[in-house]
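The pair is set out directly below:
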Amino acid sequence: MLDDVAVGKIQLPDFQRQWKWDDDRIRALLATVTLDYPLGVAMTLDTGGEAQFKARPLYGTVVQPGIVPEQLLLDGQQRLTSLFQALRSDRPVETSDARNKPVQRWYYIDISQAVNEESDRDEAIRSIPADRLLRGSFGRPFLDLSSREAECTAGFFPLNLIFDADATGRWQRAYVSASDDRWDTWSAFQAKVIDTVKGFKVPLIRLPKETQKDAVCSVFERVNTGGVVLNVFELLTATYAGDDRYSREHGRDFSLSEDWRTAKQMLSTAYPVLGSIDADSRHETGLTSLDFLQTIALVQTWQRKQRFLLDNPGTASPPAVSCKRRDLLHLPLADYSALAPEVTSAFAWVGKFLASQHVFKERDLPYGSQLVPLAAIAALLGRETCEEPTIREGLARWYWCGVLGELYGGVTDTRFVRDVEQVIAWLTDGGPEPDTIAEASFQEQRLHRLTSRNSAAYKGIYALLMKEGAVDWRFPDEAISEQNLTGWSVDIRQVFPKAWFDRNEADSARMTSIVNKTALSFQAYQTIGGNPPSIYLVALEKAAGISGDWLDDMVGTHHISPKTLHDDDFDAFYRDRAARLLSLVERAMGKTTV
């Protein structure tokens, strides 16, 4: 197997993560192999079948360009890479120490310890720095293995010679020439270690080339429980990069990760609510690569279904609209390339739509998952159609029913499909209301339990308050908007502050409810301090330089009765505010609350 790795007959599918074993694990692995203990099963896939993936050599190998592998290694990368570098390479192994600091190491075995039945084999395997000098605490070498003579004198055999019979023979002659009594030691070492390693057999499952792509993904996930979970995006990245037709036509491989990173950076720069992405696409917030692929799959399968219905009128079993894992894995590169620009444009419309609903920041986005059907609908209807007043009003109502009804918190694949089909039919053909609208409900009791951003409805009410024109209590000249939200450090803040509850021994359960919170700037929050409302309203008048009536009007934009604040009457405030917020929810959802 190591020979096949060396010449590129065995390579990795490009969706495999990089090799990452540390020094201690490599030493333990070498001890296992030298003792002929079970290593664990490796798994490969024969190439040339339906599942075509871009391949790359194992880390540390030098494979000639253009070599087409015979097998792709699905499970066993860490073990085979470690064994190749330690036993077959003429370069030190690039690994890391216990503190995760990068280091380079040669691996040796102490012959005297290896042949001693009482010795621990783990202690016989020695990790030596790249310069082959092992130093003590003051940096002074206490073990020098920098020459063949020094290795033989110390009795430390370099394990990277073990498969090179000529090099092993020369090392043996130098070792035994130092003393006649070393012949017996070498004979024992040859039998216990060298012959054991050279005869070691790796259990191998070899999948035939007919294995389907989604089966490869499923198998990989099940055998890779100790590594980083493989996702559909990485598998498609390797699949698209292995598309021979694209490579021939364009003179290069298609990079899905680069294509997605370009789209995400453009979207997140223009619309921060859609999140961010780092340089290597490993960490992304907000809109994810999976969201993007699911949206494309919804658009593709909806269009496929419509074409089928046109070509086969009256057919009872058209192909389904779907965005499940299998649909993504079977998404052709040609379809992706055709639809990705449309879907990117649709997500730009989504970013603009969210801003119109006063959802500006990623942390305030109620549901990231709901953006998938919204973008698919926008792509299928077209951005101009979505801007028509009746269409936009319908989309806003559907959106708020999903948020305030908290319908996107669980398994969403089936709801994605229903929403795309039902919302389009409702908006364009006069179909029945979508299930998301019909099923959505908001109970009055829910208001009292909305206490943090963990709830979509909590963030939704916060956005609706700003959408209704809430004016900050320190900045009277304009309503809170996207332009001043960050500069004023607007956040969800308490109306009756915690200090008031502590002083009055009031019901603290209602203190953290959204009923006792609103959108306020940091400056307003500082002015409020721990004072009762009757006191801080006077302070706010002076700080903003406005009259009491003007401030009362500003308080009213938050759906708060100014009188209840002037009276420091929390019970009256809470009852009145809860009723006002319920009316706000009803208007957004277009239906009564329970």
Q: What stands out?
A: Residues 333-356 form the longest helix (24 residues). Residues 467-589 form one domain.
